[in-house]
Please model this.
Amino acid sequence: MKKFTILYIILGILLTATLSGFLDYDPAQQWHATADSTFPQPANFPAPVYKFANNKYSTIKVELGRRLFYDGQLSKNGTISCGTCHIQSTAFSHHGHRLSHGINDSVGSRNAPPLQNLAWATSFMWDGGVSDLDLQPLVPISSHVEMGESIDSVLYKLRRDPYYPAYFGAAFGSRDITTARLMQALSQFMTAMISANSKYDRVMRGEGPTFTPEEAQGYTVFKAQCASCHKEPFFTDHSFRNNGLYPYSDDVGRMTITTLPADKYRFKVPSLRNIALTAPYMHDGRFKNLDFVLQHYTSDVQSTDNLDPLLTQASGRTGLTLTGNDKLALKAFLHTLTDSSFMRNKSLGEVNICPQCIRY
Ligand code: HEC
Ligand code: HEC
Model:
């Protein structure tokens, strides 16, 4: 009998310990241990443009932002997260989709760009319609063709969630969940999406690898023909230009925002990092591979309003001159911009928070 009493007591103690363990469980606790406030600055990049002074970098905020990024609760019916259209395995682009697909399978009007090195970007969207990364997530959340939800309703859901108040507490010092904090957490996560470890980067930093003769030739062609717009090290000069695409739709690009006729058909020069993974290409995803892109630059540049002067030769001919050999070399060089460690970076990966989220 006595034996059983002792056993019951031991069992009782174990049960209470386990239960109170569950009750006390604060998922945010474990983050404290790994909190780090040093922005992981790549050696071959300039200082970031993002104003960390207003939103101090911390790995806890990044971790909170990551959860939000992959959480379907940010959409009206719980099915679409940011990660639905921005998929890590293709540098956070919507690979294979010409135009983006959002809530209730509605189709947007532009191609979902990769998300990378956003801490150095000066404007966002193909037309630069957003100038502050902290404001960017408001657009997809409330867009009828993306997530179709109101911010108030997102805040309501997060405040009632069993974990988010604790997460926000760990990240911001109090459990209040506000629009500003939601935006700041998401943008912190996006500033952590750094792609700076491609073969190109390692060659530039002198870490050992060297270009093959073909890649080196491609780099020379690239510097002569492409780099004035696709400027190193981000492979964009962050400006808006017309690269002579045939205007299939009434999308006038930058002019949508500024209303200036001088901005008609100008779109943001996109980065070419991880370009081998992010097809289809251009703001409307019209080209399904790099061969079509190169064919465009050599043979199909249209002389529409505001065609960039760099794409008109002294003879008056529009487009660039590239031999078949130049094209092969260029493609070999563009492949050195693939950063597989970015795609494999577990700290940017999906958190299993939205099992019902749709993948298109
Ligand atoms: C339905 C698909 C879809 C969803 C969901 C979505 N996006 Fe996007 N995202 C896009 C498209 C399309 C664009 C380009 C829009 C444009 O230029 O007009 C874009 C652009 C962006 C950009 C600008 C990138 C740049 O380099 O200019 C950022 C940042 C971004 N999205 C972040 C987010 C975040 C954060 C979420 C979740 C709150 C999100 N997106 C949800 C499709 C989506
Ligand atoms: C005059 C400036 C300019 C020059 C020169 C230029 N580009 Fe572009 N490039 C752009 C602009 C602007 C876009 C986006 C156009 C759009 O979508 O409307 C673009 C888009 C691209 C894209 C699609 C990227 C994506 O994510 O969809 C690729 C690939 C590309 N350029 C490669 C090149 C290569 C290779 C060269 C040299 C042979 C080159 N570009 C020369 C301005 C330029």
